Amino acid sequence: MPIELKGLSAFPITPADADGHVDTAALGRLIAPLCAAKVDSIGLLGSTGTYAYLTRTERRRAIEAARAVAGDVPILVGVGALRTDEAVRLAQDAKAAGAAAGLLAAVSYTPLTEDEVYAHFVTVARESGLPLCIYDNPGTTHFRFSPALVGRLSGLGGIIGVKSPTPEAPGAAAHLAELRRAVPDGFPLGYSGDWNVTEALIAGGDTWYSVMAGLFPRTALALTRAAQSGDAAQARALNARLEPLWRLFKEFSSLRVMYVSADLLGLCRVEPPRPILPLGDAARSRVAETLAALNLD
């Protein structure tokens, strides 16, 4: 399916067993509600989807399983890898399995220069033929995409958007304006970091790359559509209601909270890949209490 990186992109977890074998039936149960809610796209195998912990074969199985359920909802797939040639193969696999675009981070052990990251993107785009979204994830990769580098990459034919971490509220509008000056008109500028994203959307950000939408798409869509329509008061009110969930995300990580939430909702009973440990009983109880009080979706 063609993809326009605007609106709400929902990022589910990827259920897998202790050996990293993807539970495709459980993944289908997570994907189906996203499609029913009519999210704008699905972000498969992102950081929440633990792409870095899965083999090439299992990533391909996950894409095929998601595509079997997704219908006309386009899928954006994480294709990051340490080596450029491996990222090329992952992007080729994603395209062959029906992904609409790839999400490419500057994953590396040795710190990268801007020229190295630019060459990495040029090669993956050219060799795979898969449209790519820039994945700026400095908390993991320790590489931050400057506006100048985003501008350089946005001029390449195969680069179709950017996923940036949202700055704290006072800086969101300024960050968006700086990126706007660097990229061509209409180039989609999207944001992650659920607890900060509302102000970026109100300021005119094009896309919310959302962890919570992987389980609660209708709530996330309501906030997204309010911001898109210019109803800042409603968007902020919805965001304020979600503050208890944001507190859990910041304390325990959104990944761990989503694993517990998927279990509590009866969608799948799996644990995050080791060495990530599941939340203990006390934290799990707090997640359960918060979900019961919020009554999302």
Any overview of this molecule?
With 297 residues, this protein is of the alpha/beta class. It has one domain: Aldolase class I (TIM Barrel, Alpha-Beta Barrel). 49% of the residues lie in helices and 12% in strands. It contains 13 helices and 8 strands. It has helices spanning 24-37, 56-70, 84-96, 114-128, 138-141, 147-154, 169-182, 197-202, 217-228, 232-241, 243-252, 254-264, 281-294, and strands spanning 7-10, 41-44, 75-78, 101-105, 132-135, 159-165, 189-192, 207-210. Strands 1-2-3-4-5-6-7-8 form an 8-stranded parallel barrel, surrounded by 6 helices. The longest helix has 15 residues, at 56-70. The radius of gyration is 18 Å and the shape is globular. The model has no long low-confidence stretch (mean pLDDT 97).
